[in-house]
């Protein structure tokens, strides 16, 4: 007997087996496609980093060939990566990164295509004048993180380089590129929490004709077939579906990569080629997925191989033991031990998460069994008694219909803990008001930068004016030190989130008593007394993000005193923000502003929300499909039972109600448990993110109940397929079985 020929013959003559095989192949294709996409995400971030690693400044005095200063700028809410360079050797001898056509000479600028288009669309005073040079070329996509990235490579002479420029040995090489740790973590979590529902979908599809196949194989065993032959038949049937599904998943993988390229991350989209996997990894994953399905199918033959008579007579399975309940606390304890250990790797965290997810497979059937026992003992209506008896007789099969829903609820509860908590961590940004732009510079250059900025602002017709802000330290006799800034009192309310009442003459403004304090240029340096007649006045910070302890009027400083650090700040209130930014950015230093800092935070949160929504939608769709297929499979498995009940006069509506109860009852109990477990795991993962942050706590919202409610609704909706399945049973002769 050739197992492969027999399996093909069964597929040819049995329509239900063909349907099960097709659905199994589709499930394997979905799982394979998801695995290939999720595993490729870290490689995609590495490909991005390799293209843009040259944009990161590479300092080094030994063998230096150029001066370099890196910074960021913004136009609207779009970030500009700026690199100012000046060669100290022949520019032709400097190795260029791929995609950079030439080394810019003084007065020359190379820009990305997206930045060039934006420069053409805006007035020069709003963008182009920031670079103080002539555009001589564009960077191609090999030099960009993502296609629409805004990048400028600005050429200078060594004398005109921005303050803070350092010697460099050349552009940074690709071997320094690293994987994005956050997306790598999300990809690992996605593999754990999305592939399991995919495998549940595969298992549900393969169970569509489980009872019929079991009887067929048992008959072959009783007719003299060896265990190896029976195993070969099942391996051939499942192998055809699994292999076809894996190849289909590989075939649609480029389409998934193309779709994923449109999902923004880190400020922009991707190149489809970013998602390429090494050939060895691709082959391993494509072979591993059908191998797992095949192994699961072969392991499911134990009852037929060992006791074919019991399989034919459908003996009741052994009752489940309460020890199964220990799986979840043991897995949870391992997970929380891992996240509480400082030296634990991310691999161990993902292993703990996988154990928690896998424990649901062990605990879920026992919960289903317990629910069935309650209904058999307490319920007296026909539908409830039928549902309860089914849950008692086959708790594993009954739980299978809600397994995917349980995992989707777990994912949703975990996400609804993490996202609001991450949003609660947002904010901050320093002492300046939202509309203030500032650059850090040396005290020696601060006056020059402010004067040059003001000259441009006047030329552009803007009302705003730049102000020098010195940074100093106040020290008391008992050793305590405070951070203070030096700025004219009349400018404080325009620049800082601080309220104060200006006093005539020199004054120091603080949140407490500043008598006895001396002023020093920087931390740890000896202090000197304030100028004679300096008053001690009170200031009031407007919120907790203010990090400055005192404001010092310049007249209060002793003669000849020079701060060790300085900033130049300008408010955009009443002026065009982009034009003010252009006037300040022409000096080459990186510009800081609180509103852009908050925009950056919101962009990161937007990335997390987007990825979470995509993951939840995928999990919900997979869960609904697996629940619907499992419910239909349970009807097919019990065609004889339902046919006999209908022949005895049982209405289809009673049987439909019983089947819906079978899906809803275990789903209700399991989804509540999954919601609580997901919340606890989310709290654990959040504790990893907030390590080192004081006063940050998780956020609990009423939306935590939403996954449980939606999960139960998906289970009941998926169970609605039972009525068409029952009508088909009624339409077919019972003798067919």
From TrEMBL:
<keyword id="KW-1003">Cell membrane</keyword>
<dbReference type="InterPro" id="IPR003838">
    <property type="entry name" value="ABC3_permease_C"/>
</dbReference>
<feature type="transmembrane region" description="Helical">
    <location>
        <begin position="663"/>
        <end position="688"/>
    </location>
</feature>
<feature type="transmembrane region" description="Helical">
    <location>
        <begin position="397"/>
        <end position="419"/>
    </location>
</feature>
<dbReference type="Pfam" id="PF02687">
    <property type="entry name" value="FtsX"/>
</dbReference>
<feature type="transmembrane region" description="Helical">
    <location>
        <begin position="613"/>
        <end position="636"/>
    </location>
</feature>
<feature type="transmembrane region" description="Helical">
    <location>
        <begin position="230"/>
        <end position="255"/>
    </location>
</feature>
<keyword id="KW-0812">Transmembrane</keyword>
<feature type="transmembrane region" description="Helical">
    <location>
        <begin position="21"/>
        <end position="44"/>
    </location>
</feature>
<keyword id="KW-0472">Membrane</keyword>
<comment type="similarity">
    <text>Belongs to the ABC-4 integral membrane protein family.</text>
</comment>
<dbReference type="InterPro" id="IPR050250">
    <property type="entry name" value="Macrolide_Exporter_MacB"/>
</dbReference>
<feature type="transmembrane region" description="Helical">
    <location>
        <begin position="275"/>
        <end position="301"/>
    </location>
</feature>
<keyword id="KW-1133">Transmembrane helix</keyword>
<feature type="domain" description="ABC3 transporter permease C-terminal">
    <location>
        <begin position="191"/>
        <end position="300"/>
    </location>
</feature>
<feature type="transmembrane region" description="Helical">
    <location>
        <begin position="322"/>
        <end position="341"/>
    </location>
</feature>
<feature type="transmembrane region" description="Helical">
    <location>
        <begin position="347"/>
        <end position="376"/>
    </location>
</feature>
<feature type="transmembrane region" description="Helical">
    <location>
        <begin position="182"/>
        <end position="209"/>
    </location>
</feature>
<protein>
    <submittedName>
        <fullName>FtsX-like permease family protein</fullName>
    </submittedName>
</protein>
<feature type="transmembrane region" description="Helical">
    <location>
        <begin position="700"/>
        <end position="722"/>
    </location>
</feature>
<dbReference type="GO" id="GO:0022857">
    <property type="term" value="F:transmembrane transporter activity"/>
</dbReference>
<dbReference type="GO" id="GO:0005886">
    <property type="term" value="C:plasma membrane"/>
</dbReference>
């Amino acid at each position: 007997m050739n197992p492969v020929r027999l399996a093909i013959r069964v597929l040819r003559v049995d329509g239900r087996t063909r349907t099960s095989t097709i659905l199994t192949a589709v499930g394997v294709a979905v799982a394979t496609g998801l695995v290939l996409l999720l595993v490729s995400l870290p490689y995609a971030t590495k490909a991005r980093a390799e293209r843009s690693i040259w944009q990161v400044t590479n300092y080094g005095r030994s063998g230096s060939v150029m001066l370099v200063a890196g910074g960021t700028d913004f136009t609207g809410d779009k970030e500009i990566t700026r690199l100012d360079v000046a060669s100290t050797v022949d520019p032709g001898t400097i190795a260029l990164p791929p995609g950079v056509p030439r080394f810019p000479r003084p007065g020359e600028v190379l820009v990305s295509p997206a930045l060039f288009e934006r420069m053409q669309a805006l007035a020069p005073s709003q963008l182009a004048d920031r670079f103080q040079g002539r555009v001589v070329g564009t960077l191609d996509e090999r030099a960009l993180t993502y296609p629409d990235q805004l990048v400028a490579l600005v050429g200078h002479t060594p004398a005109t380089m921005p303050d803070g420029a350092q010697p460099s040995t050349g552009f940074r090489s690709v071997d320094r590129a690293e994987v994005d740790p956050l997306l790598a973590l999300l990809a690992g979590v996605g593999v754990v929490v999305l592939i399991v529902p995919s495998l549940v979908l595969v298992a549900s599809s393969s169970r569509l004709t489980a009872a019929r196949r079991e009887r067929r194989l048992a008959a072959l065993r009783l007719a003299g077939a060896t265990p190896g032959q029976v195993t070969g038949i099942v391996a051939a049937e499942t192998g055809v579906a699994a292999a076809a599904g894996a190849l289909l998943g590989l075939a649609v993988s480029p389409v998934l990569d193309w779709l994923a390229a449109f999902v923004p991350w880190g400020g922009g989209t991707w190149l489809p080629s970013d998602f390429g996997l090494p050939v060895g990894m691709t082959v391993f994953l494509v072979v591993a997925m059908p191998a797992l399905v095949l192994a699961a199918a072969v392991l499911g033959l134990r009852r037929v191989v060992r006791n074919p008579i019991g399989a034919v007579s459908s003996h009741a399975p052994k009752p489940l033991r309460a020890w199964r309940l220990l799986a979840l606390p043991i897995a949870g304890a391992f997970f929380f031990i891992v996240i509480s250990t400082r030296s634990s790797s991310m691999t161990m965290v993902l292993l703990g998460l996988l154990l928690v997810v896998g424990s649901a497979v062990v605990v879920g059937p026992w919960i289903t069994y317990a629910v069935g026992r309650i209904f058999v003992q307490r319920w007296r209506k026909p539908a409830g008694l039928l549902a309860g008896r089914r849950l008692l007789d086959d708790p594993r099969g009954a739980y299978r219909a809600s397994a995917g829903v349980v995992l989707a609820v777990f994912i949703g509860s975990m996400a609804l803990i993490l996202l609001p908590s991450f949003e609660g961590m947002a904010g901050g940004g320093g002492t300046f008001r939202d509309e203030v732009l500032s650059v850090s510079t040396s005290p020696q250059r601060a006056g020059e930068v402010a004067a040059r900025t003001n000259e441009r602002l006047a030329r552009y017709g803007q009302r705003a004016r730049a102000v020098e802000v010195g940074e100093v330290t106040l020290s008391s006799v008992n050793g305590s030190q405070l951070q203070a800034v030096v700025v004219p009192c009349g400018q404080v309310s325009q620049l800082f989130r601080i309220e104060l009442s200006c006093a005539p003459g020199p004054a120091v403004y603080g949140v407490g008593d500043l008598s006895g304090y001396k002023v020093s240029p920087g931390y740890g340096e000896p202090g000197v007394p304030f100028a004679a007649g300096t008053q001690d006045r009170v200031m009031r910070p407007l919120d907790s993000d203010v990090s400055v302890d005192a404001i010092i009027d310049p007249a209060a400083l002793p003669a000849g005193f020079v701060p060790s650090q300085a900033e130049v700040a300008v408010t955009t209130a009443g002026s065009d923000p982009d034009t003010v930014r252009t006037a300040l950015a022409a000096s080459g230093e990186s510009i800081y502003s609180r509103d852009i800092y908050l925009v950056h935070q919101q962009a990161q949160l937007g990335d997390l929300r987007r990825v979470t929504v995509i993951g939840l939608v995928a999990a919900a769709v997979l869960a609904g499909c697996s629940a619907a297929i499992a419910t239909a499979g349970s009807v097919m498995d019990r065609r004889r039972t339902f046919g006999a009940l209908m022949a005895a006069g049982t209405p289809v509506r009673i049987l439909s109600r019983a089947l819906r109860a079978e899906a809803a009852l275990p789903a209700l109990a399991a989804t509540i448990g999954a919601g609580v477990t997901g919340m606890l795991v989310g709290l654990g993962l959040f504790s990893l993110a907030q390590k080192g942050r004081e006063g940050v706590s998780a956020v609990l919202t009423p939306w935590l109940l939403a996954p449980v409610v939606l999960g139960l609704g998906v289970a009941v909706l998926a169970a609605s397929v039972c009525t068409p399945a029952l009508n088909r049973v009624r339409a077919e002769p019972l003798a067919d079985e």
